[in-house]
Amino acid sequence: MGRRQTMQEKYKQQMKAYRKKRMKVDNTPFLPPDGNVYVMNSLDPTKEIKIEVLKTHTKQHREVITSLACPVCGNPMTWDSKWEAFICVKHGEKAIYEIVNKG
Ligand SMILES: [Zn+2]
After folding, report:
1. Residue 45 lies in a domain
2. Tens digit of pLDDT for each residue in 9-23?
């Protein structure tokens, strides 16, 4: 009986932790271990562009991308969680760069 209760408690705790984690979901992309970030212009998704990482920050022991340099104008772009992309509005047309997931 005692053992069963502990298992149940453990499960409850895990669920609680899981829910807490899910609420905190932030879809900002992580920096790949090799540090190479590739993006794709959503208007021209055939081309992969290697992009310069300007800034990262550490979150939950992982490196998160704070800003990337726009491949066209070089201005820093930050993550837009609504678009799930890095967006540049500094070189005329709005450019939306999606992160290419390599593996
Ligand atoms: Zn730009």
Report:
1. yes
2. 888 888 888 777 665
- The residue type found at 54 is L
Domain span including residue 47: 37-99
Give the position of tokens 């149940």.
8
In a domain, 84, yes or no: yes
What are the strands, taking DSSP E only, across 1-103? 37-41, 44-51, 53-59, 62-69, 76-80, 85-88, 95-99
Which letter, b or e, does each residue of 60-96 get, where b requires 16 or more Cβ atoms within 10 Å of its Cβ?
A: eeeebbbbbbbbeeeeebebeeeeebbbbeeeeeebb
The count of other CB atoms within 10 Å of the CB of residue 36 is: 11
- Spacing, Cα 97 to ligand 1 middle (Å): 10
**CA 18 to ligand 1 centroid distance, Å:** 38
Per residue in 50-85, pLDDT (tens digit) is: 999 999 999 989 999 999 999 999 999 999 988 999
CA of 25 to the centre of ligand 1 (A): 28
